Amino acid sequence: MPTAFDLVFRNARTRGASTPVDIGIAGGRIAAIEPHLICETAEIDVGGKLVLPGFVDTHIHLDKACLLGRCAHDHGSVSEAIRAVAAMKRDFTVEDIYARGARVIERAITFGTTRMRTHVEIDPRIGLRGFEAIKALKRDYAWAIDISPCVFPQEGLTNDPGAEELLIAALRDGGEAIGGCPYVDTDPNAHIEKIFDLAQEFDVDVDLHLDFDLDPSWWHMEEVCRQTERRNYQGRVAIGHATKLSALPPDRLKTATERLANAGVAVTVLPATDLYLLGRDATHNAPRGLTMAHKLVAHGVLCSVATNNVQNPFTPFGDASLLRMANFYANIAHAKVNEFDACLDLVTDLPARLMNLRDYGISVGNPADIILLDTDSGRGAIAELPEVLMGFKRGRQTFERRLPMLFPPKS
Ligand SMILES: [Zn+2]
Predict the structure, then answer these.
(1) Is the pLDDT of residue 72 over 70?
(2) Quick check: is 410 in a domain?
(3) 405 located within any domain
(4) Is residue 2 a part of any domain in this protein?
């Protein structure tokens, strides 16, 4: 008796498998993965191409995306970029944030992202307007992408009266993680302490913007590791940028890597912003400021590579494509060809673990989140930057991307 499926993918190449398989979908979930499924149902023959469970973006800012044209964009540092956005966001409305966020989400969907943690600014200037817009976007695009809001005070906490009360209000109303930005606070350690207090109170994960410079003489990493261990929060804490790690000589990097691995603190590398804002002082041989995520992973640190900013004073580029970002990272990080698969992990399996997603992956029982790439291997995905041809969320098709066509003259 053939099993009843709603849809079957034929000849799908999953990562690491030596031969293509058939994937049967039923009730929005992956119901079977076998060499030859016998059934009579709708089917898509993917011809041996690579399928993935979608890309996972752990760090993006939907609320301040797409601001090109609203300011002069002559910012040369992270503090100037923060000031520029702080000035603009007083005028943000829920509708404005929603419209800009929707543009980025739709691009992310059509580039294969199926899960996303968006960092949402919460402070007395913006109030909860950004958060309200993100909640509406989460609801309206749930058919294609799971959006998880991480609320955070971009302009400080102990130095910004009213910010904490607003963070608490957001955590009571759907904030799924809490972030922080200790380097802008007048009391960075108290900032970190308060963020962990709130994380514990609301039982949410912590995802901090940490150091964002190339001076290894001071950092807040140790305090984050200390708080993580003190509160038994191993596996629930991530730090973004962590660019100081790129400035460490090998012996100090080894010590820092072991500290992060032992404390269970993950690192998110944000190549587009790090390369754009760092190394500005150099007249030549500018430093890259990029932390080597795939090498940290090889030494036991959980890492992801993510989008961060899209077309704003922090990063005037961006299309929300995580495959492009992984390719960009691999290029800058001098990744060897045999490390390309590890680079693809940085935008798929590892960010899913960072977000503690328990139902991610092409395995029986998981939601049928599936994207199809025009290549046949993980290595090819990084090397060729192939088209993402189609995507499915919980078994329902969400987009299709056609391959370019050539029209040579008839002879
Ligand atoms: Zn960020």
Answers:
(1) no
(2) no
(3) no
(4) no
Q: How close is the Cα of 44 to the center of ligand 1, in Å?
A: 38
> Which phi and psi angles does 198 have, rounded to 5°?
-65, -40
Residues 317 and 385 in one domain: no
| Residue of 277, 269, 195, 285 lying closest to 236 (CA atoms) | 195
Tens-place pLDDT, residues 168-196: 999 999 999 999 999 999 999 999 999 99
User: Which residues form the domain of 207?
Assistant: 55-354
Residue 135 reports pLDDT greater than 70: yes
Does the pTM exceed 0.70? yes
Is 136 a domain residue?
yes
Do 158 and 256 lie in a common domain? Answer: yes
Q: How far is the CA of 124 from the centre of ligand 1 (A)?
A: 19
Same domain, 299 and 378: no
Ligand 1 centroid from CA 307, angstroms: 8
Strand 21-26 to strand 29-34: parallel, antiparallel, or no bridges (unpaired)? antiparallel
188 and 97 both lie in a single domain:
yes
Number of domains in the chain: 2
What is the 309 CA–ligand 1 centroid distance (Å)?
7
Q: How far are the Cα atoms of 334, 391, 394 from residue 397, in angstroms, in the given order?
A: 36, 6, 8
Decide if pLDDT at 54 tops 60: yes
Whether residue 28 sits in one domain with residue 65: no
Q: How far is the CA of 262 from the centre of ligand 1 (A)?
A: 24
What is the distance in A from the centroid of ligand 1 to the CA of 115?
17
Q: How confident is the model at residue 237 (pLDDT cuts 50, 70, 90)?
A: very high
Q: Tell me, in angstroms, the distance from the centre of ligand 1 to residue 129's CA.
A: 18
pLDDT digits (tens, 9 = 90+) for 23-52: 999 999 999 999 999 888 899 999 999 999
C-beta atoms surrounding 356 within 10 Å: 11
Same domain, 241 and 317: yes
Cα–ligand 1 centroid distance for 249 (angstroms):
25
Segment (H or E) for 229: helix 221-230
